[in-house]
């Protein structure tokens, strides 16, 4: 089974880009009540925000249903999925904390570890294991 990593990347980039743009407005809790007329319907900032986190939840369930219908259910949570969720949760903790620079050095080391150690190490070990099995 393969993964469309470009689609996953596009999804995460869309969320990150949107969050960045929201922060760039100087968003404050009092802004939640601001509205915009969209085709005759008043839509508040709060409405947009709630939709921005419930839409991916809804899409997640559609993905689960579609995979089931296609006979491609996941028998377990793949390791790559766990990595993605854990990194997203850690990244979410950074929202609004730039001035504190929480765990910055450790985060940089982690990023380097993923690039320099984890991915190459896994690739090399799998290749060696497959070569030994031949």
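^ structure tokens above, recovered residues below v
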């Amino acid at each position: 089974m393969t993964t469309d990593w470009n689609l996953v990347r596009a999804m995460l980039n869309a969320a990150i880009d949107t969050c960045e743009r929201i922060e760039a407005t100087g968003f404050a809790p009092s802004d939640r009540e601001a509205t915009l007329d969209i085709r005759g319907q008043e839509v508040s900032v709060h409405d947009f925000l709630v939709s921005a986190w419930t839409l991916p939840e809804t899409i997640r369930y559609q993905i689960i249903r579609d995979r089931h219908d296609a006979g491609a259910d996941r028998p377990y949570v793949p390791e790559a999925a766990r990595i993605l969720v854990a990194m997203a949760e850690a990244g979410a903790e950074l929202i609004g904390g730039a001035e504190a620079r929480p765990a910055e050095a450790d985060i940089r080391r982690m990023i380097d570890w993923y690039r320099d150690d984890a991915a190459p190490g896994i690739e090399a070990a799998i290749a060696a294991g497959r070569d030994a099995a031949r």
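The chain is about 65% helix and 5% strand.
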